[in-house]
């Protein structure tokens, strides 16, 4: 069983699909105006029925729009510190090259949006939470 995760934004959203072990099946940044089409297509491809969504600024609007997607349970989760964590994950996946490798990554700004990494973090947080509560 897979789950989807979304970091909603005004112009773009981070989106990821993960399996039950937290392995990333799909990860990308999508344009907010394509949200319903992208989620619907991904749902048909990966068969998830649960979407974990960050509670950021545009989460209410995103939730209203996503209510159009049939058979999709939406769970809201705290986004606290996910952007900082996502920058670290970006640099792990894309180590700096050339002179940039001499600078600490904490002093660098990723050259691309990291919203998709935020979505992965939200999804993995949820899976960890679920396994901890399921193990009690």
Provide key terms for this protein.
136 residues; alpha/beta; Nucleotidyltransferase, domain 5; five-stranded mixed sheet; 4 helices; 5 strands; 38% helix; globular
Number of strands: 5
Query: What is the highest CATH level, the class?
Result: Alpha Beta
Mean pLDDT: 94
- Number of structurally distinct domains: 1
Return the string of H and E elements: EEEHEHEHH
By CATH, the topology is Nucleotidyltransferase, domain 5
Assembly annotation: single chain
**Helix- and strand-based class?**
alpha/beta
- Main beta sheet: 5 strands, mixed
Side-by-side strand order of the widest sheet: 3-2-1-4-5
**Low-pLDDT ranges:** none
CATH architecture: 2-Layer Sandwich
Fraction of residues in helix:
25-40%
Percent of residues in beta strands?
15-25%
Indicate the overall shape: globular
Topology (SSEs and partners):
Elements: E1 2-7, E2 12-19, E3 24-31, H1 35-46, E4 50-54, H2 59-66, E5 73-77, H3 82-93, H4 115-134
Parallel strand pairs: 1-4, 4-5
Antiparallel strand pairs: 1-2, 2-3
Structure write-up:
The protein is α/β, with parallel strands linked by helices and 136 residues long. It has one domain (2-134): 2-Layer Sandwich (Nucleotidyltransferase, domain 5), CATH 3.30.420.140. The protein has helices at residues 35-46, 59-66, 82-93, 115-134, and strands at 2-7, 12-19, 24-31, 50-54, 73-77. It has a five-stranded mixed sheet. Strand 4, helix 2 (59-66) and strand 5 (73-77) form a beta-alpha-beta unit. Helix 3 packs across helix 4 (115-134). The longest helix is centred in the last third of the chain and has 20 residues, at 115-134. It is globular and about 50 Å long. The two termini are 21 Å apart. The model has no long low-confidence stretch (mean pLDDT 94).
